[in-house]
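Before a colleague's protein record goes any further, I have to sign it off. What it holds is a sequence and that sequence's fold in token form. Would you go through it and say whether the fold makes sense for this chain? The record follows directly below this note.
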Amino acid sequence: MMSEAASLGEPLAIAALAGFFDYGVGTKQDRREAFRLYKIAAEGGLSDAQYNLAMCYMEGAGTRKNRPMGVSLLKALAKSGMPDAMYQLGYALRYGIGIQPNLKSGFKWESAAAAQGLPDAMYSVGVCLSRGEGVRQDKGAAMEWFLKAAQKGHGEACFNVAYYYENGIGTDRDLKSAKKWYQRAVKHGDKDAVAALLRLGKPPEIAA
């Protein structure tokens, strides 16, 4: 039924079929076919397909890498309010991927995505604040954003929260909280968190 709807030109069905080929769900993975279908669905006005098409260009998935084209698509989607596009555009601006680097603009777009609750963006905002990258350095604000991202299950943010608690960076020193967040980072496979817990005298709980 999905392929029948796709053959009739239904953008949602075409995008769903593209996803099957993209990830090899129920069929052999075929990134070229996924790209072709994403493009058709994107031309039909489907924003999710436009985002996936942008990421294909950014990563060279199923097509020749064309980061300027990917950034152009991301810009349009970010301006329409899509959080994932805001984050990816901000990341591209920070690192000069397919566009001239602009730390201030990169931080602005990642902050917009973070404000909409995107964990990766929350973590990146924390990184920018901790380094003074595109914004005035503020360790306390960085800690707040790392904590928000960690509470949404972001593994690297869990480690940073623990490290900040352990060393009293941007917050009061709190070894009990540090151990708790290091343990959460361990659950995300963070080997440095394992070493940190051993250093603090608390054997990590590693799931079998």
